[in-house]
Amino acid sequence: AKDNGRARYSFYVPGLDVQIRERLSMANLLRHAAERGELALLYQPLIDLRSGRVVAAEALLRWTSEELGVVAPDLLVPVAEDAGLIEHIGGWVLERACTAAAQWQSIAPCRVAVNVSSLQLQAPESFSEQVDMALKHSGLNAGLLELEITEGVLLRDRPTIGALLAELDRRGIRLSLDDFGTGYSALSYLRRFPFHVLKIDRTFIAGIPDNQEDTELTRAIIAMAQALGLSVLAEGVERPEQRDFLVEQGCDLAQGYLFSRPIDADALAAMLGRNGAV
Ligand code: C2E
Ligand code: CA
Ligand code: CA
Ligand code: CA
């Protein structure tokens, strides 16, 4: 933190442990981050493995705080959730991502995938309204929006979340099951909820081809997704051997540093302009 008169953002409460104090002051800074223009989205291309073209992009949140520097989303999101800020930030992400995607369409068709925190889904009405507003304001077709949901949330509140997911599906929005294979994987989710895409967590992909267990699990997950009529995406593809293995297995989509790191909206548009070739 810089000492330039912004001391009002840091404070000391005796007895609070350092970590909690850090999270509190981070939450206070985060409260104003969107208004101060400190939040941004980067977009990572999702590649169709058959054509080699970019068919979608995942929006990834970045916070460059004047006081804290760059804060990773893995750290930011839990703080936002604890501080009751995730609804506000999540709404900002939806608006921004849909607006960017609406602009790409004049260049080439490309979906946008937005990460959704489980807490956002706990308030189904306001989430549903945020999605509506983002589509309306941007003019983006609902079929071009994908929502990425992790498995953990599905355990918590089945009737409400089931109804919300069914409603989003009915409106033509695509649903992705994110980080598949980590946490509480229950195959029954794939039957019970209207997912279109299954994203294999990158910890599995990292083990291909050297780790036999990861390689076999990935093979099995792809076969299972195909049998269920789901699109399957491999996250974290970094090496050509991994891409070749995935193509061989008939995996539909891939994402990872091998193709592109997350880039800004203009760079994604430029990539689409090159016929979606990476
Ligand atoms: P995720 O949804 O699993 O996103 C993929 C993460 O993998 C991203 O990290 C991405 O930069 C990284 N990645 C992509 N390709 C590769 C690769 O080839 N190798 C490696 N090692 N990593 C790769 P990032 O951007 O740091 O985001 C971390 C997590 O933060 C995301 O994981 C997601 O859970 C969360 N997140 C990001 N943006 C948002 C957001 O707008 N809302 C919410 N609720 N969560 C978000
Ligand atoms: Ca994701
Ligand atoms: Ca993921
Ligand atoms: Ca992840």
Automatic annotation (TrEMBL):
Residues 23-276 form the EAL domain. It comes from the Bacteria. This is Diguanylate cyclase/phosphodiesterase. The lineage of its organism: Bacteria, Pseudomonadati, Pseudomonadota, Gammaproteobacteria, Chromatiales.
